[in-house]
Amino acid sequence: xxxxxxxxxxxxxxxxxxxxxxxxxxxxxxxxxTKAPRxxxxxxxxxxxxxxxxxxxxxxxAEGCLSFNPTxxxxxxxxxKLAGVKRKRQVSAEHLAKLASVGFKAMKHTVERASAV
Length: 117
Description:
The chain is of the alpha+beta class. Helices cover 36% and strands 28% of the residues.
């Protein structure tokens, strides 16, 4: 169970990105034991990953493992999509300046990241 906003919500699926071998990463897609399996989602995503050249390590009805090359942008994009990870927004220096003009105070790491871009 995970908590969001003070209420309990169960996860519908889980994922894990791991180092499969030297120079290769893996992603595991696991459905929840308490909810209906996401068979269609797994089949669609695994088919797209295989078409892109990722290697199937384990295939279940609604879960499985794929390995991929972390230097291949297409593989990385599909692994991120399969895992359901959301990318962090990059704030530009111009946008930070606009926010500062209305009273927003950015955290130190946000300012450092924006100035590096």
